[in-house]
Amino acid sequence: MIAETGLAALWLAAGLAALQLILGIAALRTEFAAERAMRGIAVVQGVLTLLAFAMLLIVFARTDLSVALVFENSHSAKPFIYKVAGAWGNHEGSMLLWVTVLSASGAFLALLSRRIGESTLTAALGAQAALALGFYAFLLVASNPFARLDPAPIEGRGLNPLLQDPGLAFHPPTLYLGYVGLSVAFSLAVGALLTRQVDSRLGRAMRPWVLAAWIMLTLGITAGSYWAYYELGWGGWWFWDPVENASLMPWLAATALLHSINVLAARGALKAWTMMLAVIAFSMSMVGTFLVRSGVLTSVHAFAIDPERGTFLLALLAIYVGAAFTLFALRGATLKEGAPFELVSRESGLVINNLLLSVILAIVFLGTLYPLFVEAISGEKLSVGAPYFNAVAGPLALLLAVLVGVGPLLAWRRERRAILPKLRVPALLGITALVVTIVLAPGIAILPRLALGVAAFLGAAAILPLVGRNPLRAPPETWGMVVAHVGIAVALAGMAANAAFTTERLAVARLGEALDVGPWVVRLESVAPTAGANWTAIEAQLRASRGAAPIVLKPQTRYFSDPPTETNEAAIQTFWNGQLYTVVGKPDPSGAWQLRLWWKPFVTLIWLGGAIIALGGAIALFGRALRAWRARRKREPNWRERYI
Amino acid sequence: MKPKNQRLILVAAALFAVVAAALLAMWGLREQASYFFTPADIAAGKASEGKAMRLGGMVQAHSIQRQGDGLTIRFVVTDGKATTPVVYRGIVPDLFREGSGAVAEGRLQNGTFMADTILAKHDERYMPPELGNLSAEHKAGGTLER
User: Closest residue of A to B15, CA-based?
Assistant: First the structure.
């Protein structure tokens, strides 16, 4: 019954989405007052998909093997948390999560939106319903998560062991909240273009949605990066894998949108540009979904290969993106540009930020899709990896990071003062960092060296907006910006330090033998079998010392029987100045063991920086919300009686 | 600045960015993309020495030889028509075996493929996509592991 309840809820939600879309069209074409009804429908729709998702969690938690999806992806002997998280560790479940976030976003838009006009809101809710409808259809027709098996098998096939990790519980939901949360910006942009009400009010209404989605996306990408880093045992934190790029592309677009939307909200300018970015951001989410879920690429995360699904998703992508761009082409040129600005101004700075982010986005996009195009056209197979992305996008990202230090110092509309003198201290720091690396580490590559200098510059320059004023009186969004920009400097420093100073040691060691890696001496003490709930393992015991008290690391090779797989469990020890990363390989015939050791100075700054960037976003989001709430309470002292 | 001029400048800047991105990407792709070859392609002389590429095929039975250092292995990759010898130093992926599929990334040097990384079938269900045509038992699903 549980699976059937979930399926029924989905069908019902799809029906409501169709109704919501019809009401939206009616409201747009006539004077029909649909706002209240549409808000109600959107909320119910959100509740129904949440119910369907809850049903999926229940069948997974109970390992109900009569549900085909559970049989394919679960096993009764799996730890409970992976039974539950396994619900979205597969194609159908993850698409259900996607759709749930989509309609929950629509429900929140219906519940919370008070700032925009009625007609724009109904048009936006109509657009959100149109999006939801397509993806409900995809779920119900091509990816039903609740399909039954009769008779029920006695045991499931198990979950891919690489996914049996706490990362699975956190990474996909956060990523999807960000990815799919951008649908609200898309719908608001489509709604505003339809009603021709693109103004600063729309900018202010759209901003918290973009910011919230962007925060989740930042957290999701950061968490995914750390997960891949420790789980795969390859010692890398970003592989330029197409699936990673699929999450990076919406982030780049959302970051650009986050900045241009401030120009729209504050100055009423960059209207067409901001609408375009809002459309592109969610389009990138859909492109990402297509890449990952259609099985068109096969990589670390792509679990499914099914041409039917691919065609379906491609059709949805073409319809939505095509419709949005057609609308943009028809209406974009008729938008009146808002307040003008001079060449040297905050607005110009944000335009340059947007252009650089867009160029980086295009480079990632082309690099990710090029192999698919070539294969489709000529049948030739090729791959595009880190050498391309680092060489082409890396220098642009560094240039952008430099400008991040400059842009916030510019005044709106027109900058009359000279701002370069303010940057004296940061520039001095950056140059000092460069000189120090040239003297102390002459052998490192040019890009990491420059990145270290830029990180030092930006770390200081990012704080300047708080200098020369009482920092406690600075508005929360200024604090948020400063924190996020410092986060970029921190992450950049981590990436550069990892690229420049990592030492790797690959060797065969006998029991008792010691190996050097960086400042460490690592001794192989013993190798012994061990076991967990659903795996057995060979575990090496390593004792690492650097003068003072030694520490013990226990890397493993794990063997899973359902499905039959081996995984490497790296043992990682974190210190304030870096991580010691150890992997054990195979024994050679003489009984010695392969060991792979890395000393990675300051690598943790990468993820710390990502978390700081998200924190900055959260400060701006909640700070603004708090201020708006206070203002409303002041304006309407009796609001409590009216709403509660 | 007049609003009309401002819009023109913005459009010009956006166009410039698009063209710049496309040119940069084309340059980068021409320099850095690595093509996929089978042993038959290499035998036919399609692959040039020293350029980054990927080699795919089945690991020939009884061809894996461990070298004295315990880390370097030599093996032969075949696609049924031709064979290519491969040298790799490092920890091989978990399911790298004789008789199963593998993709190696690296460069060709005097007819021997010097592999930097080896991608192999990760679990019982998965095989690198390029090997789809080489094996009748190729089935969908799974993940790729280095």
Answer: A355
